[in-house]
Automatic annotation (TrEMBL):
The keyword Membrane applies. SUPFAM superfamilies: Cytochrome P450 (SSF48264). It comes from Aegilops tauschii subsp. strangulata (Goatgrass). InterPro entries: Cyt_P450, Cyt_P450_sf. The chain crosses the membrane at residues 50-68. Keywords: Iron, Membrane, Metal-binding, Transmembrane, Transmembrane helix. This is Cytochrome P450.
Length: 264
């Protein structure tokens, strides 16, 4: 269809160049009108599938994105792996274990590396010397952790000390934590509880010394939970298994992949 349309258009233009007027359906029209008439007459037979239209729109969108990025002034950023238009450096991070992938990339690009995962831009610092230079005199600028919609839903919009934004609320929580939990006096007061729970853990492990398998992770979870709950409330939880199940579910939900984290 395309070859026939082009051939017909070229034929009309050729005839129009040699004749000032051309007969179409018994009337004379100008050469330009002949060209438009040929296009209109064959347009109803010249249809493309929808996938061609989608591909063309996608190509034009990517081309426009590349042109707009090229016109913007580029800041001085660290080196990094090559990026794709939409996903950025995400394809480099999906090749294997994340910590090994980061190590390989840092060995290739240096201790300061630029990664862009979709709409998130991150500077990866992989050496103690570079981290010391960055944090020296810039503690306040790098003290706040990146928040996300999932973390906000699980932690009440960062009201806890772990994900709280840097500011007066965070400083208040830190003061309470250092005074009521981590001071030397409070640690000494919790010493008896920790020793009792540690002795209880050793006794439970000794009771299974007849060759049975022991899940150390579960026993350590029970030890830490009993120690923390006794230090806070003065007694163990009556339903510790249900509490640990909820905690593990929360940790699992906080580490899930969320598109809102990559496209804020």
């Amino acid at each position: 269809v395309t070859i026939n349309l082009v051939s017909y258009m070229l034929y009309i233009c050729f005839v129009s160049d040699h004749h000032n007027r051309t007969m179409v359906r018994g009337s004379y029209i100008e050469p330009c009108s002949v060209y438009l008439y040929a296009v209109h007459a064959h347009m109803e037979h010249f249809t493309l599938p929808y996938n061609y239209h989608f591909g063309l729109c996608l190509f034009l969108a990517l081309l426009l994105h590349a042109v707009l990025r090229a016109k913007k002034p580029r800041p001085r950023l660290p080196p990094g792996p090559w990026q794709l238009p939409v996903t950025g450096s995400l394809h480099h991070l999906l090749r294997g274990l994340p910590h090994r992938t980061m190590r390989d990339l840092s060995l290739r690009h240096g201790p300061l590396m630029l990664l862009r995962v979709c709409e998130r831009v991150a500077i990866v610092v992989s050496s103690a010397k570079a981290a010391r230079e960055i944090y020296r005199g810039n503690e306040a600028a790098f003290s706040e952790r990146l928040s996300s919609p999932g973390i906000d839903e699980l932690c009440r919009h960062g009201q806890g000390i772990v994900f709280a934004p840097y500011g007066d609320h965070w400083r208040l929580l830190r003061r309470i934590l250092m005074t009521e939990l981590l001071s030397a006096r409070r640690v000494e007061a919790f010493r008896r509880i920790c020793e009792e729970e540690a002795a209880r853990l050793v006794s439970s492990l000794r009771a299974t010394s007849d060759g049975r398998l022991v899940n150390i992770d579960e026993r350590l979870d029970e030890f830490m939970t009993d120690s923390a709950v006794r230090a806070i409330f003065g007694d163990r939880l009556p339903d510790r298994a249900a509490f640990l199940k909820i905690v593990k579910q929360g940790v699992g939900l906080s580490s899930l992949f969320d598109l809102r984290d990559l496209f804020p």
